[in-house]
Predict the 3D structure of the following.
Amino acid sequence: MDTIASLFSFITTPVSWVIVQFHKVYGALFGDDSGWAWGLSIVSLVILIRICLIPLFVKQIKATRAMQTLQPEMKKIQERYKNDKQRQSEEMMKLYKETGTNPLSSCLPILAQSPFFFALYHVLNSIATGKTIGVIDEQLLGSARQAHIFGAPLAAKFTDSSSKVAELGASLTDVRVITAVMIVLMSASQFYTQRQLMTKNVDTTVKTPFMQQQKMLMYIFPIMFAVFGINFPVGVLVYWLTTNVWTMGQQMYVIHNNPTPGSKAQAAYLERLTKHVTHHGKARRRSERAIVKAIVAKGRDRNEYERKFINGLTKAGLAAQADGSVVKSEGTVATVTEDGTPATAGTPKRQQPKRQSKSQRQSGGPKQAGEPTSLKKSDEPEDAKPGAAKKAPQKPGGGTRSKAQSGQRKGGPQRPKSPSKK
């Protein structure tokens, strides 16, 4: 750990300076030697770091969703070039370049937070060993060593001996109870964050190996925190528990307001958005218009929940526009095409003509509304028909339809009857 600490020694001075500045503020409220003053200073350091990492967190979300979208293509490349690892790697890099994705983007917040974590660990470890570091001088060092959180010193560990804990002015039982509770809370918060990501914010329409990896991480990370947590000082546990709680809340906010397309969270979000938009008659917030704009732009590529959202607007007499706004459909009945896109406003609904009976088709009527009327056959004069042949006069006694006698042909010479055999 000394080697790792030396690598990040350039950041220990800024970290110690930030802690001292927060300690001055909280020390005026709770006392310089109070555990609340030093504990809240660490919590404030976490909040400051996580606020600075929000842009990286947004990139992480975009990169993670892009990787989820590319999983089917990546699987095809792996199956196609399973015997040629070099070609497989080249095709993977080509796919990343074409789509503009980077697998390392999903790890940026963790990588960016790591230097602060190791710097804080080195600062607290120096306090535990009674060594000054950064801007923490002898006076601040003595104040930090006297600070306790619920009876446990900031520099104490779960694995410390009773004699070392006694030097810090605490009992071994208090230290182990407090550290055990913090480790359990730290592991539980990590598990819950990963679980809500898997159960609510994953596209259920595509089964990819990425989902199996996330399930494995859901159980591996809490175990890692529990194993390594027993070697962390109480101050570092405060830091790590705070950052886990921040991550959990941040993840809940993203799932609630910007869920992954095709996930259960998106279905719940679009259901809420449908009620909100139909109640107000428009998309009021910028985030709502961005979601509507993205759904309209997809066209035929919309998933089941997005088509349901468009249909819900249509039934309410509303139409989603390409710019993300929602307007009322006036003068026509709102319709939806086969691909789920709303019909253009002002376009009349196409009606299917009524099916005519056989007698109506033979007589040529009735006509549809708006069609020009024509003379019926009975109303046309005989001489007005060009090329019409004159009707032959009917023989007296002949009906409209002649009946052929039994055993005779209707026209031409008749066949003689064959003589009957006696």
Q: What stands out?
A: The beta strands are 148-149, 152-153, 318-320, 326-328.
